[in-house]
C-alpha cells in the first residue's frame, strides 16, 4: 500500500510540474447590449429587484462572458478551462506555459496572468490589468437624431445616460391598432429583445393585435421605437402589451367598455403604466355623448375604470385631446378622471400647441396635468419611415415612457409618490393654469425628488444627488449614521477624490473632475455602499 501512495505522489508532482494554472483576460464584451436590453437573460428577477431596491445599477461586469471567446479558448489544444468569472471578464485555465502564452495571438485577449508569479516576470504585463470596460453601453450614447428635442425638453436623456431606460417596467398601450409593429425596422429592437409581451384586439375579439388602424403603431414608436440617428423612444427598454379598444369605423360607448376590459386585463398581467391616446366626448348617436357637465372625474364609464386602475397601483396617462380650437375645448374622457394624468401638447419651443385641449374640469380641477411635445413629434409611420406628426396622441406616450424610466429609478415608491415627484418637478408647479396644467416636467429633478421621497433610501441607504450633476453632489445619510468617507474613482479604479463627510457637512465638490462617468464608494463603520455618478 505504501508503494502505491509513493507512485501517486510522483505522478501528482509530475503533473503539477508540467501544467500551469493561469487566468486569461478578455478585452471586452462585444455583445453586452443584449444583456442590457434583456437583463433577465442573465439575472433572475430577484437579483434585479435586489439591485433596484438598493439603488445599484446594472454594470458591464453583470453581463455574461462573450461566448465566442470562451469557445475559442476551450477549443485551443492543450488548454483546459477550469472556471470562469464574468465580474473580472476572464477564464481560469490550465495548460503548459507554451500553450498558455500562445493565447496571446487572439485579438480579444488582453493578457494572461500565471498563478506562479515567477512566470509573470517573463510576460509583458500591461500597467493596468483590470478588464473593466472604459465605456458604458448604448444607453449612454443614444443617437437621438431629430427625436432629441422631445426627450431633452423633459431632461429625459439624463435618465437614459444613467441607464434608466424603462427596464423592468411594463406599459400597456390602448389604441386603435398596431399594424406592422411585427415587421418594420423601428421595432426590430423590441422584437429582438422580446419586449412585446402580448396583446388583444377587443374590437374584433381576436388575438391578432398587429392589425387595425395605424394610430397605435405611431404611438408605440414614441416610446419603444429605435432607429439610431433618427428616432429613440422615451422607454426603449420597457416592455409592452398592445390592446386594441378603439373602433375607427364608428364612435360608440362600447369603446369605453372595451377600454375598461383592457384595463382589467392590464391589471391582471401586472402592467405598471397604462397610456391611452384615445378620448371620448361626443358619439355618433348624439344621445350617447358626454357634455362638459359630465367632466367631474368619475362619471363616465372609462373614467371610472381608469380611477379603479389607479387604486390597483397603476399609473394611467391619457391624451388631453386635440379640441383646443373647437367650440368644446375641454379635456375629455378618460383624461378628465380624478386619478388620470392628462397630457397636453406644446411645440418644440415649449409654447402651447393651439390644438391642445384645456381645462378646468367641470368641478374645477386643474386639467391638463402636464405637457410634453405634441406638435411636430418625431415618430414612425406604418411603413417604417421616420416622420413628424402632431397631436396630444404623441405627447402622452412620450410622457408615459419617461414615467417608466422614473419609476425604474425608485421602484419601491407607490404610483402616487411617483406622480407627486413628477408634478413637483414641473416648471409651473407653484402656479398651474388651465392651458399648461403644472407645466413641463424636469425628469432629472423628479429623479432627485423621488429618491429623497423614498423611505427605504432614507432608512437604509445613502442617497447621492443630483445624478447626473454639474459641479457637486450632496449625500443624504440613512438612519443611525452620522459620519462616513466617500471615494470617487475613475473607470481604471484610481481614487480621484476622498472626503470625510457628516450629517452636518455632506456636500462634495466635483469641479476637479472632467465630464464623464465615475464610481463612488461610501464607507461608514462596517457599512459600504457603491454606485456610479455622471459628471456633465
Helix content: 25-40%
Number of strands: 22
Distance between the termini: 72 Å
- The helix count comes to 16
- Integer-rounded radius of gyration: 28 Å
Overall body shape: globular
Q: Quick check: average pLDDT?
A: 84
Strand content: 15-25%
Low-confidence stretches: 1-17, 122-141
Q: Strand count, sense and closure of the main sheet? A: 7 strands, parallel
Q: Helix/strand-derived class?
A: alpha/beta
> Order of strands across the biggest sheet?
6-9-5-10-11-12-13
Keywords:
four-stranded antiparallel β-sheet, alpha/beta, 22% strand, 22 strands, seven-stranded parallel β-sheet, 536 residues
What does this structure look like?
- With 536 residues, this protein is α/β, with parallel strands linked by helices.
- It has 16 helices and 22 strands.
- It has helices at residues 2-18, 32-37, 45-53, 67-74, 97-101, 117-120, 148-152, 156-161, 188-192, 215-224, 254-268, 301-311, 392-409, 415-424, 443-453, 455-460; strands at residues 20-26, 80-85, 90-95, 109-114, 170-175, 196-201, 226-227, 231-232, 239-244, 273-276, 315-319, 340-346, 370-373, 377-380, 386-389, 463-465, 472-476, 483-489, 495-502, 507-509, 516-524, 527-535.
- The protein has a 7-stranded parallel beta sheet with strand order 6-9-5-10-11-12-13, with helices on both faces. A 4-stranded antiparallel beta sheet has the order 2-3-1-4. A 4-stranded antiparallel beta sheet has the order 19-18-21-22, with no helix packed on it.
- A hairpin with a 2-residue loop joins strand 21 and strand 22.
- Helix 10 (215-224) runs parallel beside helix 13.
- The radius of gyration is 28 Å and the shape is globular.
- The N and C termini lie far apart (72 Å).
Amino acid at each position: 500500500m505504501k508503494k502505491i501512495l509513493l507512485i501517486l505522489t510522483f505522478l501528482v508532482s509530475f503533473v503539477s510540474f508540467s501544467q500551469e494554472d493561469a487566468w486569461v483576460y478578455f478585452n471586452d464584451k462585444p455583445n453586452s447590449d443584449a444583456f442590457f436590453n434583456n437583463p433577465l437573460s442573465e439575472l433572475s428577477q430577484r437579483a434585479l429587484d435586489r439591485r433596484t431596491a438598493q439603488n445599484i445599477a446594472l454594470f458591464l461586469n453583470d453581463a455574461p462572458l462573450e461566448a465566442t471567446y470562451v469557445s475559442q479558448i476551450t477549443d485551443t489544444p492543450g488548454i483546459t478551462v477550469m472556471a470562469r468569472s464574468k465580474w473580472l471578464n476572464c477564464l481560469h485555465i490550465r495548460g503548459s506555459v507554451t500553450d498558455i502564452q500562445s493565447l496571446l495571438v487572439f485579438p480579444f485577449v488582453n493578457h494572461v496572468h500565471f498563478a506562479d508569479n515567477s512566470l509573470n516576470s517573463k510576460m509583458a504585463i500591461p500597467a493596468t490589468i483590470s478588464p473593466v470596460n472604459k465605456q458604458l453601453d448604448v444607453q449612454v450614447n443614444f443617437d437621438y437624431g431629430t427625436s432629441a428635442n422631445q426627450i431633452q425638453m423633459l431632461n429625459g436623456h439624463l435618465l437614459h445616460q444613467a441607464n434608466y431606460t424603462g427596464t423592468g417596467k411594463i406599459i400597456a398601450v390602448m389604441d386603435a391598432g398596431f399594424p406592422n409593429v411585427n415587421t418594420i425596422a423601428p421595432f426590430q429592437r423590441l422584437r429582438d429583445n422580446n419586449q412585446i409581451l402580448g396583446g388583444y384586439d377587443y374590437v374584433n375579439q381576436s388575438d391578432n393585435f398587429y392589425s387595425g388602424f395605424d394610430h397605435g403603431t405611431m404611438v408605440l414608436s414614441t416610446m419603444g421605437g429605435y432607429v439610431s440617428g433618427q428616432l429613440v423612444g422615451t422607454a426603449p427598454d420597457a416592455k409592452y402589451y398592445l390592446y386594441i379598444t378603439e373602433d375607427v369605423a364608428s364612435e360608440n360607448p362600447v369603446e369605453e367598455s372595451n377600454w375598461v376590459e383592457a384595463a382589467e386585463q392590464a391589471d391582471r398581467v401586472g402592467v405598471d403604466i397604462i397610456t391611452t391616446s384615445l378620448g371620448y366626448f361626443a358619439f355618433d348617436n348624439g344621445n350617447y355623448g358626454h357634455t362638459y357637465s359630465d367632466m367631474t372625474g368619475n362619471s363616465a364609464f372609462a373614467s371610472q375604470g381608469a380611477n379603479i386602475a389607479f387604486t390597483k397601483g397603476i399609473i394611467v396617462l391619457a391624451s388631453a385631446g386635440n379640441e383646443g380650437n373647437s367650440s368644446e375645448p375641454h379635456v375629455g374622457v378618460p383624461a378628465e378622471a380624478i386619478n388620470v394624468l392628462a397630457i397636453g401638447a406644446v411645440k418644440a419651443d415649449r409654447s402651447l400647441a393651439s390644438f391642445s385641449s384645456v381645462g378646468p374640469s367641470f368641478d374645477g380641477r386643474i386639467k391638463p396635468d402636464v405637457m410634453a411635445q405634441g406638435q411636430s413629434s418625431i415618430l414612425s409611420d406604418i411603413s417604417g419611415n421616420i416622420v413628424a406628426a402632431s397631436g396630444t396622441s404623441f405627447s402622452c406616450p412620450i410622457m408615459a415612457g419617461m414615467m417608466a424610466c422614473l419609476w425604474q429609478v425608485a421602484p419601491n415608491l407607490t404610483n402616487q409618490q411617483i406622480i407627486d415627484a413628477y408634478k413637483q418637478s414641473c416648471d409651473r408647479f407653484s402656479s398651474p393654469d388651465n392651458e399648461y396644467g403644472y407645466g413641463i416636467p424636469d425628469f432629472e429633478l423628479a429623479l432627485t425628488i423621488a429618491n429623497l421621497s423614498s423611505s427605504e433610501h432614507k432608512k437604509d441607504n445613502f442617497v447621492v444627488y443630483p445624478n447626473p450633476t454639474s459641479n457637486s453632489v450632496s449625500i443624504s445619510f440613512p438612519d443611525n449614521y452620522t459620519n462616513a468617507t466617500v471615494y470617487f474613482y475613475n473607470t481604471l479604479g484610481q481614487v480621484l477624490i476622498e472626503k470625510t463627510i457628516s450629517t452636518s457637512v455632506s456636500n462634495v465638490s466635483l469641479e476637479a473632475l472632467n465630464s464623464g462617468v465615475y464610481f463612488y464608494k461610501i464607507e461608514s463603520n462596517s457599512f459600504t455602499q457603491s454606485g456610479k455618478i455622471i459628471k456633465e
